[in-house]
Design brief:
Blueprint: E1 2-3, E2 6-7, H1 10-22, H2 36-41, E3 48-52, H3 55-58, E4 62-63, E5 68-77, E6 86-90, H4 95-102, E7 107-111, H5 114-122, E8 128-132, H6 133-143, E9 148-149, E10 156-164, H7 170-183
Parallel strand pairs: 6-7, 6-8
Antiparallel strand pairs: 1-2, 3-10, 4-10, 5-8, 5-9, 5-10
Amino acid sequence: MASPAGPQGLAVAILTTGFEKLGTEADWVPLSLTEQISALCNGEVDMLACLGVTTERQSQVVFGDPIIRTGGALFTIERQPTEPARIVTPSAGPLVAATQAAYPTCSVVEVDDYPQALSHVVDGHADAAALNFHVGSQVAEREFPGKFVPPGSTFEEIYLAPAWAPTHDTVFRNAITSVLAAINPLENP
């Protein structure tokens, strides 16, 4: 997540420690959800810090070992119905199909990003936003302080991992993957 002080968040902290152990300094580049994979594959960035591991994405990028276990969660405001009828989620994220499977009677609407999804809920255009639990919590609090009820659970388990273009340097990829596994021993899925 971008802030006035620079990038922040759990993935940034884990990766920064890994880069320091390798003696490498990172230049963090903010990208929207829709830009991430194309920027990686076009060589605009060398690595994506944290991307949800999906079968579709595994055909496009090479993932390191997962560094964060999280999940898809529903973000609602207090006055919303208990059972949502309309759920909004970013089209570029891994939650479109998972939301449709978990809530088959709901209408799932796709938007560009997390702030737009949350805005739809606040404006009454959706009953809930299906977002990554960790990132969604941070964005909801930053964009709409105190408006969203913290999700009590997740409906889909998601692993987040660094990702590289298939043509990226395997020596560095293997080095950072080894360092990250040593400092952040998340059990593999």
